[in-house]
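User: Show me a protein chain along with its predicted structure.
Assistant: Here is one chain, sequence first, then C-alpha cells.
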Amino acid sequence: MNQNDVVVLNMEERGNKELQNEKTLICNDEEEEEIICLDPSFFIDDNYQLTEFTFGSQQIQLFCLQSASTDFDLTGQLVWPGAMLLNDYLSKNVEMFQGSTVIELGSGVGITGILCRRFCNKVVLTDHNEEVLKIIKKNIELHSCPENISPTSHGLVAEKLEWGNTDQINEILQKHPGGFDIILGADICFQQSSIPLLFDSVRQLLQVKEGGKCKFILAYVSRAKMMDSMIISEASKFKMHMNEVPGTKCIIGNLEGVIYEITLK
C-alpha cells in the first residue's frame, strides 16, 4: 500500500464517520418529534340547526347540519338531494304507504322516515354510524309527544344496521318478526364497495315477506356513469327486478335523480 492509498482510505473513513453522524442526528431529530394524537371529536361537527322543509302539503322540522362534517363517514348528518326527491314522492303517493310497515336504510338525520311515519303504521330508521344514530334519536324525540319522548314512541324506532351484517338484520327482524312492507333508501349509492352489501341486505329483507309483498323504493341520484351501471348490475346479480317509476326522473340541484321500485324476481 503506498501513501496515496493511505490518503484515500483516510478520506473514506472520514466520509463514513460524517455520514454516520448525519444519520445519528436525523434519528435523534425523529425521536424528538412530538406525536400528536387528535381526539375523534375533532372531526365531528354536532352544531345541528333546527331546519324546516316543505314537501307538497307536508311540513317537517328537524335538526341537521348545513354543511358536511370533515369525517367522510358522517355524511348522514346532512339532508341529501335524494332525500328531497324521495320525500316529494312520498307526499304525492300517501295512499301507497298508509298502514304499512317500513324500514329505511341509511336514514341519516331521519327526514324520510319521520315524514313517512305520518302515513305508515311503523317505521324503523337505520344507520351504521353511532354519531348519526344520535341525531336520528334526537329528531325522533323532537317528533314525539311531550309526555312520551321514548326513542320507540309513536311507531318510530332507530336501529343500528351495517349493510351486509346478517346478525344485525336478524336482531331487527326478531323485534319485527313480520318483516316490512316497504324498504326505503334515499341517496345511499355513492360508494362502490358498499353497493353489493346494500343489495345483500335488501335481498334478506325482501325475502321475509312471501309472495313478493315487500318492495324496495330507492331514490337514486346519478353522480357517476360507473355507479349507474353498477346498481343495475348488482340488482340483477341478486335476482331483483329494477323498474324506473314513471314520471319521477328529474333534475335536483344540478344532478339527475329518479325513483326505482325494486322487487325479487
